[in-house]
Amino acid sequence: MSENIDLTQVAPVEEADDAETSEGGAPSELDRKINEHFAGAVVRKDLVKAVKGNAIVPSYVLEYLLGQYAASDNEATIQAGIDKVRDILAKHYVHRNESELVKSKINERGRYRIIDKVSVTLNEKDDVYHATFANLGISSVVVDSATVNAHQKLLVGGVWCLCDVEYFHAEDARVSPWILGSIKPIQMSNFDYEGYLEARAKFTTVEWIDLLIQSIGFDPDKFGRRGKLLQLVRLIPFVERNYNLVELGPKGTGKSHIYSEFSPHGMLISGGEVTVPKLFVNNANGRLGPRRVLGRRRFR
To answer: Which end of the chain has fewer CB atoms surrounding its CB within 10 Å, N or C?
Structure first.
């Protein structure tokens, strides 16, 4: 089953970025310009809901997959890409309540491909890197240093990946039976800063504001300049350290969406579920948490 997906079809992660084509109809001049300078990194936001289903996968992960398989203005190619992404999710996404079933498949087949969030830590005692799989619930999976160096965000909060996981039971109880056969990030695990600056220089300030509005899922034609800037204010905590932003508004107006779906560096928490120490230290392992943008909702 898992052999049907070709990992080589996924473009290098350095090329990924957020952009969007117009929802339906012919692409605008701005859309064509975005496709030209961010080739292979453009995705229509309206396609995300069409493929998400019941998979608890962040929107930015689905956008990345759609950017690899449906980055086109040809409807037939887009539909084929949507079907491909749906197939990948159906066959390989690990639901937490099915983790034991997936472990059994890996054990029975010896090797199985999964989609899961993978984080890596350094085991100082043995001088090796160990991976932890969030939904599958396994840890202490040895990762070679070359993989970690190529995808350093594995060390900072983790990355959603398409992985081949193998199982080999050893007599030595200290040896983990889980083996990481291959790993392909399906969200940005590296960032080409120079390439980003080069592409940014091709856009005017007005065009760039419209691109950012599209990137967070809105149609810039529906907003005046002030309305666009008000939407972009929500992004300030992602680029400015120690920035506190309080937003008041009725339910369903997008206040929480940005912090839960827009970026892997955002985290949404409910007001009564966290204490100040928990914002900085993970109680499960005693480690300091990574720097993140925190969105807290429903204050009383």
So the answer is: C
